[in-house]
Design goal:
Layout: H1 5-21, E1 25-28, H2 38-50, E2 54-55, E3 65-68, E4 88-91, E5 97-104, E6 108-109, E7 112-116, H3 117-127, H4 129-137, E8 161-164, E9 167-170, H5 174-181, H6 188-205, E10 211-214, E11 221-225, E12 229-233, E13 236-237, E14 245-252
Antiparallel strand pairs: 1-11, 2-14, 3-14, 4-12, 5-11, 5-14, 6-13, 7-10, 7-12, 8-9
């Protein structure tokens, strides 16, 4: 109910507190998605996300709300993971916050996972300081055709871990890094080292005791702070009549 502006402001304050200073994620429940058409739901969802900050365009089509659904192709540099039914490992999205609104559930699977990137950082700091230094130096990414120019590889490196206002932040997406370094000319030994570090990051982020499993119901919204947590998705199976459908938003705080 967005009619009471004061009530909405108070709720947004609570949400942002949880996102920025507590768990780094929150699930909002009870939105009536079966009652309205997708266009109206999308507009209301955009309005709600705009209360958290600036709703960002997510691709070269400048879409601010993107449909997350299986279009029947495999995940590759030419086909984004959210358009498949495949397992998506721990990563961060664009913007400060990412929102996933469940419109239709799959037949089976599709659970969302969340883990603390801060715990991953301190695990590296304690056990793998040399590898942490490389993560902080950063990597090039494959642009996946979503950049303004024609470059397939980013010109600059982006750090996995960095600090801002004395807070540890994280930005990670393994596959675009791997695809980039498959096209970059360098000694095989160096590429092997990079892959080894990326695999180590995935191994540490998948420590079971640090993972929270979430099964989104229709009408649920999962919000994550990309700087505080990593999120993932399990492989899923669609029903014959209806495909799993989520609406994704990226927000700059």
């Amino acid at each position: 109910n967005f009619k009471n502006s004061n009530s909405l402001k108070n709720k947004v304050k609570i949400i942002k507190k949880k996102l920025d200073y507590e768990d780094g994620f929150v699930v909002l429940k009870g939105f009536e998605v079966k009652k309205y058409n997708l266009s109206k739901i999308s507009k209301s969802y955009t309005f709600l996300m705009s209360k958290l900050g600036i709703v960002l365009s997510q691709n070269k089509k400048k879409e601010k709300i993107v449909k997350v659904e299986n279009l029947g192709k495999n995940w590759s540099a030419n086909n984004r993971g959210y358009k498949t039914k495949e397992n998506i490992n721990f990563h961060t999205d664009g913007g400060t916050y990412a929102g996933l609104m469940c419109i239709r559930k799959p037949k089976s699977g599709g659970e969302n996972l969340v883990t603390s990137s801060e715990k991953v950082y301190y695990h590296f700091k304690k056990n793998y300081p040399a590898e942490l230094k490389i993560l902080e130096e950063g990597f090039h990414y494959h642009t996946r055709g979503e950049n303004k120019g024609k470059e397939r590889i980013t010109k600059k490196k982006y750090p996995i871990f960095f600090k801002s206002n004395n807070l540890i932040h994280c930005m990670f997406n393994k596959n675009p890094i791997v695809w980039a370094y498959n096209q970059i000319s360098m000694p095989k030994s160096k590429k092997k080292t990079i892959l080894k570090i990326l695999n180590l990051f995935e191994k540490i982020s998948n420590i079971k005791k640090n993972i929270i499993f979430l099964k989104l119901e229709e009408g649920d919204i999962l919000l994550v702070n990309n700087y505080k947590v990593l999120h993932a998705r399990k492989k899923f199976t669609d029903s014959k009549k209806k495909r799993r459908l989520l609406l994704r938003a990226w927000v700059k705080s």
